Amino acid sequence: MTKPSSSKPAQANSASAPARLKSVFAGPEKVPHVLFVVDQLWQLGGGERVLLEIVRRMDRNRFRCSVLTLQPDPAPEVLKHIPCQLHILPLRRAYDLRALKMGLRLRRLIRDENVSIVHTFFETSDLWAGPIAKLSGVPITISSRRDMGFLRRGKHRVAYPIASRFFDYVLAVSDEVRSYCIQTDHIPARRVETLYNGVDLEEISAKADERDIRRELGLSPGVPVVATVANIRPVKGLDVLVRAAAKVCREFPEAVFLIVGDVLVPETYSELQALVESLNLKNNVRFVGKLANPYPVLQASDVFCLPSRNEGFSNALIEAMGCGLPCVATRVGGNAEALLEGTTGYLVESEDDEAMAERLLRLLRNPELALKMGAAARERAENQFSIQAMVSRLMKIYEELLAEKNA
After folding, report:
1. Residues 253 and 273 in one domain
2. Residues of the chain under the 70 pLDDT cut
3. Which terminus of the chain has a smaller tally of CB atoms within 10 A, N or C?
4. pLDDT at position 152
5. DSSP label at 46?
6. pLDDT reported for residue 87
């Protein structure tokens, strides 16, 4: 896991940290309580899914977990499977009278539940819950930064450097995001660490065989299939993929491009459908929709393509690598940290559908090369991006920070 040596919390007290933290922060019979605060759980994107995996895999002998979301009506799968207490504080705005009332409720929750760590995900949680948590006396506050600020508005750009002062530590999802936090939010480098997302290869292998996607879609074994997993919105660059598909289909007229993801921006979906029709690709580009389990689609594919205009660190990319797929991705955010150019796939510049098509064609023309790169991608996912390593490092960070606070 890549990170600068200067960003690691002091090690001097970490050896006996778990035993000491139980008595110092949570009482002799309890373990430290981590409260995760996330903007919403009704639409599960990469960050939300990572959060739920963390909660599911945390060692209950080392930490107690609970989750607080700021929007009502979490997704049914969250309510069904979340393995800890879920709190809901509906928040429409972060600066009105209701926000003040919700802030008092958050303060009371933190104190009543003896919270040791508040760990925030996304803008409102960072800017609203983080400062409230610190002012409520929480020993440790941590912010999880997962993108290059493409969702930030003007008010966010003003508020983030101020709110960042309330965090003891920031976990960036890639080195590119880490640099962004240091340069844009003016956070000292020693307080920012890179913690990559992780994938569960055993779970991927088990779920990949749940459906036979080729049979369901009527695709013969010889039909080339290119897949992407991305919710439909402008930042995902799916229009670039469609234009690249038109060039690929000149040589491989039977090729099929499968787009897995929910429609978050209906206007973008309408534009994509119009583009598909104008390029005569109705038989080649298929919108599969939202899938709780996308792995059978990846299993059925020959190549994975990620055309994003902006990324922090793509879960979809490392999941495709975990499925043994060669990947073509744009050189944005942390993509170049996940994908090794010429070894596990290819990187192309954002918006360059010509280069994207050329790399896709190179892999479709050379099945042996594609298999070789896919095997290298699987090996890299296993060695560098396992979910077990991610959660293990996260728990160690918690213990080191709490021990440092008590030093």
Report:
1. yes
2. 1-29, 407
3. C
4. 75
5. H
6. 93
Please give the pLDDT value at position 3.
39
The three-state secondary structure class of 128 is helix
| Same domain for 139 and 100 | yes
Tokens of 383: 């060695």
Q: Looking at residue 34, what is its pLDDT?
A: 98
pLDDT for residue 7: 42
- Judge if 154 and 234 occupy the same domain: no
Q: What pLDDT was estimated at residue 9?
A: 42
Q: Say how many Å lie between the first and final Cα of the chain, rounded.
A: 27
Whole-number Å distance between alpha carbons of 301 and 297: 6
Domain that holds residue 169: 5-198+386-406
Taking the whole predicted model, whether its pTM rises above 0.90 is answered as: no
Distance (Å, whole) CA 114 – CA 104:
15
Residues 172 and 252 in one domain: no
Cα 70 to Cα 147: distance, rounded to the nearest angstrom = 20
Q: How many other CB atoms sit within 10 Å of the CB of residue 389?
A: 15
| H helices present in 88-219, as ranges | 97-112, 123-124, 130-135, 154-163, 175-184, 201-208, 213-217
Cβ–Cβ < 8 Å for 224, 301: no
Instruction: Name 209's Cβ contacts closer than 8 Å, sequence gap at least 6.
Output: 296, 299
Token pair of 15, please?
């050896």
Q: In the structure encoding, which two tokens stand for residue 364, read together?
A: 């479709």
Taking the C-alpha atoms of residue 244 and residue 356, their distance in angstroms, rounded to an integer, is: 6
Please name which of 139, 187, 162 lies closest in space to residue 6, comparing C-alpha atoms.
Answer: 187
- CATH number, domain of 261, equals 3.40.50.2000
What is the number of structural domains in the chain? 2
The C-alpha atoms of residue 352 and residue 374 are separated, in whole angstroms, by: 23
Could you count the other beta carbons within 10 Å of the beta carbon of residue 22? 17
DSSP conformation letters of 241-298: HHHHHHHHHHH-TT-EEEEE--BS-HHHHHHHHHHHHHTT-TTTEEEEE--S--HHHH
